[in-house]
Design a protein that fits this description.
α5 (124-138) runs antiparallel to α7. The radius of gyration is 25 Å and the shape is extended. The longest helix has 31 residues, at 161-191. The protein is mostly helical. The chain has helices at residues 2-12, 20-33, 67-76, 91-110, 124-138, 145-154, 161-191. The protein contains seven helices and no strands. The relative contact order is 0.06.
Length: 192
């Protein structure tokens, strides 16, 4: 189990975790869950919900260890987990949903048409158009693939976990830049 913990927590996933506290937390989870105890037929991840959070291998309704049995079990899990599974009080879910509702309602109120009196000044459309043009001017240029590859090679190549993580983050950022550019352009066209 020491080898399994090392392979999962330090090599496969742990190499992508750059924060020391996050790595420590992940290793703690590994020591708690990646043990012989998990293979015990009576094992449950959360005792408060019997039979709900289990490893379904060789259990009633989930015979054997075929991948389809695990998929069948995963399909039975709820889409929204109970906060008690994570050691939180049930009020944590209520507080989260209340905050989420407040944000949603605030957003709805913010996008409502505003009634204004008097004249002078810029219209809302002109203000938004000015903001869009300002944001477009501040947008960084696209990452050039050749420059990224050369930069990563200079850092030691793709054999290092941090460089793999860096490459993945650059790819995500490039996709984000593309989406933001498209949205700004569409917003400009919608206003015009």
């Amino acid at each position: 189990w020491i080898a399994v913990n090392y392979m999962v927590c330090d090599v496969q996933y742990g190499g992508r975790i750059t924060d020391d506290w996050d790595r420590r937390l992940f290793n703690t989870y590994g020591k708690a869950w990646l043990t012989q105890v998990c293979l015990d037929p009576a094992f449950e991840f959360h005792k408060g919900m019997p039979g709900k959070y289990i490893i379904p291998a060789n259990r009633p309704g989930y015979p054997g260890t075929e991948i389809d049995h695990f998929r069948k079990y995963i399909d039975t899990l709820p889409l929204v987990d109970d906060p008690e599974i994570f050691g939180l009080h049930s009020n944590a879910d209520l507080a989260y949903r209340s905050a989420q509702t407040k944000v949603t309602l605030d957003t709805i109120l913010d996008i409502q048409p505003k009634e204004g009196g008097g004249g002078g000044g810029l219209t809302r459309e002109e203000i938004v158009l000015k903001m869009v043009e300002d944001l477009q001017a501040k947008m960084p240029s696209d990452y050039r693939t050749d420059d990224v590859v050369q930069g990563i090679k200079a850092l030691g190549g793709m054999g290092k976990p941090l460089n793999i993580c860096l490459k993945q983050e650059i790819d995500k950022l490039q996709q984000l830049l593309k989406v933001v550019r498209t949205m700004l352009s569409n917003l400009k066209l919608a206003i015009a």
